Amino acid sequence: MASRPAQALPLDIDVEERRAQAQLLAWYDRQAADLPWRVSPQAKVRGIRPDPYIVWISEIMLQQTTRAAVIPRLTRFLARFPDVRALADAPMEAVLQEWAGMGYYARARALHGAAQILARSGMPSEVQALQALPGIGPYTARAIAAIAFDAPQAPVDANIARILARLHAMSETGSALRNRLQAEADRLMARQRPGDWAQALMDLGAKICRPIGPDCGQCPLAKMCKGRAIGPEKFPASARAGPKPLRRGICFFLRNSKGEVWLERRPNRGLMGGMLGLPGSPWTEEEILDPLSCAPAPAPWRRAGSIRHTFTHFHLELAVMAKQEDCTQPSLAHFQQKACPGLDPGCSRGFVSENAPIQGLRVSDPTKSGSDFACDPLGEWIAIGDWQRAGLPSVFVKAARLASTVDFAAQITAEMIDGL
């Protein structure tokens, strides 16, 4: 490998830290993970630069998704949206469908919004300009600037935070810890190779300085690590988190005579905003007093069972009700409950793929451009085997799989689900 120029280091880095910094970069030159968004150290020597678009997409995906899960999803995403123009021109529904299964769907909406801006102005390299884009906070802005543009920025993700906290046996928690971590990251940054330095720390945290069972004997920073002698797994210290609350809800699996399932478009704001999902009740810690009030068709319904799903801030227990309909449209009363706020009271949203509009209901067709309807489609019938195309979130995939096993010949009455 070609030789590199000497590192320009801050004056307050001591000799041991300079040596450790060089050792980590040498380790990265040998051991850098092969990732679809990364340009290897060897390729950089040959003048190959990272693609800012790919770096940006990867960093948004990595915000709440593991590296192993992101790798195949990024490859698939880039095949569908190979550049920022393709992403900007795509309908939001297509982006949400491609995002399905990764959770935190606000990321996909922000990504699409930022693409509208970037398609006109290009990707900025400055942290302040990056932070002005939807979905990009301080960490992501620093990571993009460093990795895509080799800007002198020091991002601190969970891996880097763990390494720095162990190196200095940091006992702080909360904002005091975050502030100290960022200050230390800024101080130790290799200023001639900031992108490689950031990624070297990320790899070190993923491969060696793991949360549980760190391989300290293989760590190029082991000699300067204060936390090693104390017990590295004690760092970073964290305040004890309280238990996650349990919320309950009910969802409805309505299947028509063609074997299709009715899915509704969730509101754009909120959890899984803009995604298709099974109709149902709000998710609440309170008792559901009238579980059938949110049903998309009259009783009888059969209880298929319940599923449990965990989100970042709460656990969800979802009762799953199933019903076979001979007709091919949900009830008008159900749509009337979902009138568009702030618009003509007579305008209720809905889309039925094969039927004429229900009397008194405005029905829009998402396959036709230039629609003069005031509302976006509320939902549609989807074949059971076509959940991936619909971009169904995993919580609803669980519920639909459970409900699809129901024997519809043995439906139960509404009275039998009292007390859900």
Task: Explain what you see.
The structure is a single chain. By secondary structure, the chain is an alpha+beta fold. The chain has 16 helices and six strands. The strands form two sheets. Strands 1-5-4 form a three-stranded mixed sheet, with helices on one face. Strands 3-2-6 form a three-stranded antiparallel sheet, with no helix packed on it. Strand 4 (302-310) and strand 5 (315-324) form a beta hairpin. Helix 3 crosses helix 4, helix 3 packs antiparallel against helix 9 and helix 9 (138-149) crosses helix 12 (194-207). It is globular and about 75 Å long. The protein starts with 14 loop residues before the first helix and ends in a 17-residue tail after the last helix. Mean pLDDT is 82; it is low at 1-11, 332-377 and 410-420.
Radius of gyration: 26 Å
Give the spatial strand order of the biggest sheet: 1-5-4
Characterize the biggest β-sheet. 3 strands, mixed
- Straight-line N-to-C gap: 66 Å
Helix fraction bin: 25-40%
Q: Please state the structural category.
A: alpha+beta
Shape: globular
Number of helices: 16
Beta-strand proportion: 5-15%
Question: What's the pLDDT, averaged over the residues?
Answer: 82
Low-confidence stretches: 1-11, 332-377, 410-420
**Number of beta strands:** 6
SSE series = HHHHHHHHHHHHHEEEEEHEHH
Provide a brief overview of the structure.
The chain has helices spanning 15-31, 41-45, 52-62, 67-80, 84-89, 92-99, 106-121, 127-131, 138-149, 158-167, 174-188, 194-207, 227-230, 332-336, 387-390, 394-403; strands at 246-255, 260-265, 276-277, 302-310, 315-324, 379-383. The chain has 420 residues and is an alpha+beta fold. A three-stranded mixed beta sheet has the order 1-5-4, with helices on one face.
